[in-house]
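Render this sequence as a predicted structure.
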Amino acid sequence: MSEQLENINEVLSQHKLSQIDYHNIKEILGREPNFVEIGVFSAMWSEHCSYKSSKKHLSGFPTKAPWVIQGPGENAGVIDIGDGYAAVFKMESHNHPSFIEPYQGAATGVGGIMRDIFTMGARPVASLNALRFGNVMNDDKISAHQRYLVRGVVEGIGGYGNCMGVPTIGGEISFDECYNGNILVNAFNLGIAKSDEIFYGKAEGIGNPVIYVGSKTGRDGLGGAVMSSDSFTEESKSLRPTVQVGDPFTEKLLLEACLELFKTDHVIGIQDMGAAGLTSSSFEMAGRSGSGMIMHLDKVPAREEGMTPYEFMLSESQERMLICAKKGSEQAIIDIFEKWDLDAAVIGEVTGTGDMELFWHGEKVADIPVDPVSEEAPVLDRPVKRPAS
């Protein structure tokens, strides 16, 4: 196991974890966490990944009906539209990343929800957006910056979608001074699939291989889930390295490779590596199935030298998927992705322990129960009041 932490208060502050969070983590582990484990809890318990502030309110919405094939809890929602077909859809905000780096923030928001669509087995066909910006009408620095944000966000949305061959068919936008310090960038994507050919993000079957596919992993997007959950300060521009960099041409290859894979009988489950990257995809897939998982992080394809286990788990490099496959199908899957000039590597396997065990060149660097991380994140009861007039 890697070394324990020395200055724990500084580490907690960097990861936006409270002393209460730290106490809960120690209770869950039955010991002091190490740096990798702190990073995992920080990402998975962030607002962006766990909805810990909004879950209380979101739970009041209706989510079940005869035509609902899949409600909340998966990569995307699925609605039966008749004649054997289903609409697969996802809406997601990329507010903070777009405020910090408007083009890439908006572009990767679009790319992320498209992956959520085609990981369910659907081909994306149309996008929408809902945008809110601050005052763009004055001659001061605030309005100039807002105009810069508008241009970047619009170009990012259009640029990624055009490269993927998926049109943005509509949207709505408004401007108000209340958004000067925090714009809203909401992207929506719709896909179509056969209603009996939907794929889910699950990892089950002891001994089944866990396969990494797509782009190589780099250091871009480190801390992105935590950044997306945090409030802004004057130093927000320094957070640009936490914004992912997208490559829509690679995503187009990934889309076609996945849709080809889905015509086979090799897949148990598949999930996009979105916010929190390999951490969220692995924990959520195992959590939905009540399984455990072993992963060998030194086997993850890397595009940078000297990367650490922490960086592999928390990187939010784009255009990547995690697959739970049927045992014996490893080479067939690798062949499909290599045909499309994408990386593919067996990095682990499903277990029945209920724990996520992470290894680095044979050394265990983290051992975390899956459920408390993926299924039992803290739910907060935030105070509510009318805004000051």
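Summary. The longest strand covers residues 123-133. Residues 141-164 form the longest helix (24 residues).
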